[in-house]
Amino acid sequence: MSDSVDVSKGLPPNPEKATLEGKNKFLGFWVFLGGETIMFATFFGTFLGLRDGTAGGPTASELFSLPLVFIMTMLLLTSSLTSVLAMYSMKKNNFRNMMILTVVTVILGFAFLGFEIYEFYEYVHHGGLGFTTSAFGSSFYSLVGLHGAHVTFGLFWFITLMLRYSRTGITLTNAPKFYLASLYWHFIDVVWVFIFTVVYLMAIGGA
Amino acid sequence: MSDDLSKPFSKSALTHEELLKINRERKIQIAAFACMIFLTLLAFIAVAMDMIAPGFTIPFILLLAVVQFALQLFYFMHLKDKDHEWPNAFMLTGIVVSTPALIALILLLGVTKY
After folding, report:
1. H/E element, A161
2. Which segment of the chain is annotated as a signal peptide (chain B) (predicted)?
């Protein structure tokens, strides 16, 4: 795999893996995602072990509200779709479409983050659940907060890429970067699937 | 030479067949998304309805989560595609290591009682 590319031949079908660097990034990022899976699993395990330890504080079923979680889930799920569609635009060398779809992804991501901040604010100030209130509180804020931190990081990742490459078009340098950011965003959505099921729905459902 | 890597392309090298294939894949992705929305709705409805017993609801929503997990990984993250043998190996390793960690944490924390 060489470092040179004949631009006149057109964008290759899989621009994210057309160069050696792109292939290496792709492989390395999956190693990272495998590790992230394990890290999140330990946070989930801790939460599941500690969630009954409310120490006289508010319990999960008292705090959680189904509509809020539903809206957040829909926002994140839709942003995952727009991010997947952005990657198809990238493969077709449609830079404008890719940027628009990425902007939509970022907007949806910020909406999600806003709801999460609102949620935490409500729990702390009106729900009476602080980080140190109970084992449930600590493990809940750690797990969901860690996910929120990932969302924040992903958003700034997208924004940085969009600013840096706002005028360059799709190149073999930036295609792997956009592709990995999109993979990361899907992974965040994967984690959220388990958060809304294990943390919220199981608590509201009475387990 | 490597400067070319930062040059944009005026056109796409996709052949007509490849373009059709990509458009077909794109449709499948949208179908997968619709499926995920449906599963999410199902999970929320199962929990919102009081008449369904928790003994059924909890395993049911966990099963839905696992199905959605697979849909996300295999479709949105392309794990089903060719050239994804190593990513599959990495994710599988992650899941294999996660499983005992998860079980151990749940059991041990439950026993020691914080």
Report:
1. helix A135-164
2. none
* Cβ contacts of B97 on chain A, cutoff 8 Å: 38, 41
Q: Are A86 and A105 in contact (CB under 8 A)?
A: yes
Looking at the structure, tell me whether residues B65 and B90 fall in a common domain: no
Give whole-number Cα distances, B40 to A74, A88, A114, A149, B32, in Å. 9, 25, 21, 23, 12
Decide if A51 contacts A139 (C-beta within 8 A): yes
The answer to whether the Cβ–Cβ distance between B10 and A37 falls below 8 Å is: no
B90 and B35 inside one domain: no
Residue B63 resides in a domain:
yes
Q: Give backbone dihedrals phi and psi of B12, rounded to 5 degrees, phi first.
A: -100, 145
Range of the domain at B30: 15-80
CATH 1.10.150.170 fits domain A15-48+64-204? no
Predicted local distance difference test score (pLDDT) of residue B50: 77
Is B28 part of the contact surface with chain A (CB cutoff 8 Å)? Answer: no
Are B88 and B100 in a shared domain? yes
- Total structural domains within chain B: 2
CB contact under 8 A, A4 and B1: yes
Q: How confident is chain A (207 residues) per 10-residue block, as mean pLDDT?
A: 71 89 95 96 94 88 92 96 95 94 97 97 94 93 97 97 93 94 96 95 85
**Residues in B touching A44 (Cβ below 8 Å):** 102
Shortest distance between the Cα of A161 and any Cα of chain B, in A, equals 14
Q: Do A85 and B29 touch (CB under 8 A)?
A: yes
CB contact under 8 A, B10 and A48: no
